[in-house]
Design goal:
It is built from twelve helices and 27 strands. By secondary structure, it is α/β, with parallel strands linked by helices.
Length: about 550
């Protein structure tokens, strides 16, 4: 039998080559979020890619918060990110780090650059620095402070650290090349004055390193070998390499860029999500209509489904968009053999079996999942009064309608054949009760073969049914119009949330937060972890049962 060739992505090919050439002995990757918001589905790709590479090569995976900007960072975001990464299964073991752990080393690194003549203190304002920088077609010009002596720069930098200057009064810039075709290399700012309290270091510092300076230092200190990041950092790689080279780290890390994960017709921008939250359109960063990882978890997505989705998207060098339907496909695939198939009626109408004995209750056996016998069976109560879905009865049915209508017979799932013999309406003409008779000979599981029916409908036994709030979600965005208008407003779908007062079979009464089930014919549902109470679950629809989406061949 021939060996199967496994196709490797471009990152794996680079790592293989680096190991073969002896550049690194073991692999170390990291996930480095800034704690300034909640993570979304795009971050899941980065988490699983970095962790996956470490696992594949028996290496290490670090979790590190890039907390160099105290103006936007909160402990709340730190904790939510840790929860998201752990939920996705990325285990950082004892390697939880913060950029702020290295503030002293970063300061010393800046001093080293000054002593080498590679950094200088600049008095230009932010607007002037931008003006001096030049354009994509024109080179920049040197700052008038570029040629300060090493001694003067050391003194001024020390005074910046000591708090002598106001925010924006002075910055430390790398001295590289103002004529570089890459604007990031035109003497970038590497330290700024910011009299702000930091969520971990308090008021110990009033100068903070810029991300492009801090990030390569953090990677080098931690022994990261391959710094995997998204494509927008490609133009920053020369600066990354310059920092680790000038600071003379013995085994410099290597930055590799990959394409971001874009989903069609979803909102991922923190600014826009914040606006949705503040305007009350969604009920928080974890609203199940969003694609933050917290929202996906609350809606009922599983880590396995997200991993499948990321794997299907693959690792590429070119940006592209993926249809949200692919994510829905992945959760259906993950849940279909794992979850029990229960009965729940979302739009109820009463069904009375006129010839069934009043007060009698029998318990019928039901398979939890016909495709997975290992999930076993359960007993479901049945009696004279039931609830069925309103759409499962029609007074005047269209052609090919196979459910209940006058004089038609259907099977009640796991129970008996029933025949419609009448119905009642209210003063507005709305059906309130359907009357049927049942045939005791047709009990499910008895092998009855006397006649066949074309339709099967689900039901719940009314006296023991569990009343429940059920939330049906559609895309938050009006898909026909796209996400954003020219003026920056969003096209919100007014039907993105429908709340039903439903009835469930009694076994669902004690379902726990984040437990999920298939509701027969209605989709997959998860117990909401925010609004459910003991004995009174609230269910979110994760996804409907059917989709036209097919995997590309």
């Amino acid at each position: 039998m021939e060996n199967e060739t496994v196709s490797k992505n471009f990152i794996e090919q680079i790592i293989d080559n680096d190991l073969e050439e002896g550049k690194y002995e073991t692999i170390c990757t990291r996930f480095p979020p800034e704690p300034n918001g909640y993570l979304h589905i795009g971050h899941a790709k980065s988490i699983l890619l970095n962790y996956g590479m470490a696992q594949k090569y028996n290496g290490r995976f670090n979790m590190r918060f890039d907390d160099t900007n105290p103006t936007k960072e909160k402990i709340e975001f730190v904790e939510s990110i840790k929860a998201d990464v752990a939920w996705l299964g990325a285990d950082w073991e004892d390697r939880l780090f913060f950029a702020s752990d290295y503030f002293e080393q970063m300061y010393e690194a800046a001093v080293k650059l000054i002593k080498k003549g590679k950094a200088f203190v600049c008095d230009l304002t932010a607007d002037q620095i931008r003006e001096y920088r030049g354009t994509l077609t024109e080179p920049g010009k040197n700052s008038p402070y570029r040629d300060r002596s090493v001694e003067e720069n050391l003194r001024l930098f020390e005074e910046m650290k000591a708090g002598k200057y106001a925010d924006g009064e002075k910055v430390l810039r790398a001295k590289i090349d103002m004529a570089s075709p890459n604007i990031n290399m035109r003497d970038p700012v590497i330290y700024r004055v910011a009299h702000m309290s930091h969520h971990r270091t308090g008021d110990a510092w009033c100068i903070y390193p810029m991300y492009d300076f801090a990030h390569p230092i953090e990677d080098a200190i931690e022994g990261v070998t391959h710094s995997l990041c998204t494509l927008e950092f490609e133009d920053h790689r020369p600066l990354y390499d310059w920092v680790v080279r000038e600071l003379e780290y013995p085994r410099p890390p290597k930055q590799i860029e990959f394409a971001k994960l874009y989903l069609t017709n979803v909102v991922t921008g923190k600014r826009y999500i914040k606006k949705l939250v503040e305007e009350g359109i969604v009920d928080g960063w974890d609203d199940p209509r969003l694609v933050s990882i917290a929202a996906l978890r609350r809606r009922g997505f599983t880590p396995e489904s997200i991993k499948m989705f990321v794997d299907l998207c693959g690792v590429a060098k070119a940006n592209s968009s993926v249809d949200y339907a692919m994510l829905e496909y992945c959760i259906r695939e993950d849940l279909k053999l794992k979850r029990s198939r229960m009965m729940a009626v979302l739009d109820p109408v009463k069904l009375v079996i006129d010839n069934y004995p009043e007060g009698q209750v029998e318990y019928l056996e039901a398979d939890n999942n016909l495709e997975n016998e290992a999930l076993g069976k359960r007993m479901v109560p049945f009696g004279r009064e039931l609830y069925i879905e309103r759409e499962d009865f029609m007074e005047v049915p269209p052609k090919k309608y196979k459910r209940l209508y006058p004089d038609n017979e259907v099977r009640l799932m796991n129970a008996y054949f029933v025949k419609c013999v009448g119905f009642e309406k209210d003063e507005d003409g709305k059906i309130t009760t359907v009357h049927c008779t049942y045939d005791p000979e047709t009990k499910c599981g008895t092998g009855f073969t006397g006649r066949k029916v074309k339709g099967t409908i689900h039901w719940v036994y009314a006296p023991m049914a569990v009343p429940c709030e059920v939330r049906l979600y559609e895309n938050l965005i009006d898909e026909e119009k796209g996400v954003y208008n020219e003026d920056g407003t969003m096209n919100i779908n007014p039907n993105s949330l429908t709340v039903c007062q439903a009835y469930l079979e009694p076994a669902l009464k004690d379902a726990k937060p984040l437990e999920s089930f298939q509701f027969v014919r209605n989709g997959y549902f998860c117990v909401d972890c925010k609004d459910s109470k003991e004995g009174a679950p609230v269910f979110n629809r994760i996804v409907s049962l059917k989709s036209s989406f097919k995997l590309p061949k």
